[in-house]
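Subgroup meeting minutes
Present: P.N., E.W., G.H.
Scribe: E.W.

1. P.N. recapped why we're keeping a running log of single-chain structure predictions: easier to compare across weeks, and new members can see raw inputs and outputs side by side.
2. G.H. added today's entry (132 aa).
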Amino acid sequence: MSDLRPEGIEVELGGKKHRLLFTLSVIDGIQSRLGKGIFDAMDHIAEAAEGDMEHETLKAFCAIMAILLNGGETGPLTENGVARLVTKDSYRPMAWAVMAAFGLSLPEPEEEDEEDEEEEGDEDGPKVPAGR
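Output recorded in log:
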């Protein structure tokens, strides 16, 4: 059975501990703010983790961090506030933490049991006699 209550990743930012957790509210906030799907938005985080400091990557990183840190709600941490707290040295580790939180926030798919496969029948489906 998959764990349906992920805990996220704890990070320290600005001397405070925060928990990064991708809830539906966070995912919706990120998609709305960036105008793209969550996987496309996460490309910016992957670029940040690799050290990319282009304007678009930095802006997306700060937006995603603010939404994550505020739990998907309007909160005290703005994009500019995040930009003031994240340093050149903490930028990449913070991006890696976001990627880890994203991966941990997705429940693992359950594997099919052999019993389920046997109940499904063969690929052609059940045999029905002609004329019925």
